[in-house]
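F.,

This is the one I mentioned.
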């Protein structure tokens, strides 16, 4: 008989699955950019142009369009990193966060942006980053707060993108994408994430319980005249040494 194959860990499968949609999204953006460049389609004309009827279509199409390779590459790396975090930690609402950030951010730019074509997925990226940061703070879970700090460490410099510093940068998209992400973090703050904080299990206490179940009688409480149990003395000495230092802690994670 062949031994049954061990099941693959659920957490590993979920980690890989969380990367599928972000990677596919980047492939779509790359294909769109290559077609635009290779066939000289001039797709930038489908960007978001504020307060004009023909610019309304840009609310849907602008995040798919990019000006040059650097613009596309920078956005692609952020989409993979932030998109994976969103899909892994908040799979129940990840799609809603991206969709509403896409639409609400675009509407904000259309209403209040400069009279120019706005293109690029930066608004959605700012929305994801803002959602991950604020959501982690609101939920007060150590795991999610650590994620917030990681987002701050990796993408904290994005804060400068919401300021009107450079004329060729759509800071309006950054601003309204971030506003949408913050609003969504408050709206969905009661939706449970896919992970929870590790639960401590004190190994010393578990060992004590197991030792007590063995039925061995302590030499200190045994009947007079009983021979000293050397193994019991060694166990007592080991437990006394452990009591002088912090207990061992093991952690378990939700799958």
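My design for it:
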């Amino acid at each position: 008989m062949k031994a049954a194959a061990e099941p693959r860990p659920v957490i590993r499968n979920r980690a890989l699955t969380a990367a599928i949609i972000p990677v596919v999204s980047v492939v779509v953006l790359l294909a769109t950019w290559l077609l635009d460049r290779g066939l000289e389609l001039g797709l930038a004309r489908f960007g978001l142009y504020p307060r004009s009827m023909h610019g309304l279509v840009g609310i849907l199409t602008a995040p798919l369009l990019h000006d040059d390779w650097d613009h596309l590459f920078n956005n692609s790396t952020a989409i993979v990193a932030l998109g994976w975090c969103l899909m892994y930690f908040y799979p129940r609402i990840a799609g809603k966060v991206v969709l509403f950030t896409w639409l609400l951010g675009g509407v904000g730019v259309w209403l209040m942006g400069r009279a120019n074509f706005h293109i690029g997925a930066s608004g959605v990226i700012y929305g994801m980053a803002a959602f991950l940061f604020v959501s982690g703070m609101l939920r007060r879970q150590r795991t999610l707060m650590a994620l917030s700090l990681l987002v701050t460490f990796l993408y904290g410099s994005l804060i400068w993108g919401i300021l009107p510093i450079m004329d060729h940068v759509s800071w309006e998209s950054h601003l309204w994408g971030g506003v949408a992400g913050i609003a969504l973090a408050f709206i969905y703050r009661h939706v449970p994430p896919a992970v929870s904080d590790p639960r401590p299990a004190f190994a010393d206490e578990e060992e004590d319980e197991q030792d007590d179940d063995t039925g061995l009688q302590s030499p200190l409480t045994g009947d007079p005249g009983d021979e000293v149990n050397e193994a019991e003395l060694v166990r007592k000495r080991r437990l006394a040494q452990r009591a002088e230092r912090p207990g061992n802690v093991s952690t378990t994670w939700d799958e």
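The longest strand covers residues 199-202.

Talk soon.
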